[in-house]
Predict the 3D structure of the following.
Amino acid sequence: MSERIVLDARDIVVRYPGSPPVVAVDGVSLRIAAGETVALVGESGSGKSSVARAVAGIDKPAEGEIRFDGGAVSPLGMRRRERSLTAIQMVFQDPSTSLNPRRRVGDQVSDGIAAARARGLEGSRPEEWFERVGLDASWVSRFPHQFSGGQKQRIAIARALAARPHLLVADEPISALDASTQSSVAGLMRDLVAELGAGMLFISHDLAVVQRIADRTLVMYAGRVMESGDTAAMWAAPQHPYTRSLLAAIPKPDGAGRIPASPTAEERASWTAIPPITA
């Protein structure tokens, strides 16, 4: 039986106003299957978050096509979102800004439950989702300010997953957390998404975490995908010089090695995408 493709994005171009306009994403294509975690990595300004916002329907691409569960992804507007598109959920970088400080956290998780129920799925309770993300079920009546950063991100994840998404878009979801929490939260997301049979687009600059949780990885530079393929194969034998420079900069557990010198402007200007790695 063929795999179910939840996201099929082709030749996405995202431009922002300016003189001249800024091309943040320049012809990016990606596919995500149900149960698969695909990572998007690259330095700041490479276009990762712009891809995430386009895929989630927050920003409209200037060119290209984005299909979710076989249908077109329409950009968010003033009207209520199409019911089917509530199966796309997003977890943002800073949970302090994504959670409403004036509402009890249990009520905010209930928003996700309501989205799932509107699509005809069986109801659940906020307490169940709190337990699934490793929080005490009795905390549902608290407010966001009563939680640590890591706990708030777990609540944001619970809210997104309570909607029973087919696709979870996670835009730097661990970068605002302390080092001791990052790996556990990323692993939690991977496990729960796999349990739900959803796909996940995981955007991060933490390559050590990406190596542990991503099935496939796409490497972005200057709005384009330089290299893509099976994560383990890419880590074992990176093909593009930019990928090699990123992987070489990962700190070694024993402190061995050093961060390599940054590529020169001439080297960067010569970079072009290479064909995807065959797993």
About this structure: The first helix runs from residue 48 to 55. Residues 91 and 157 are 6 Å apart (CA to CA).
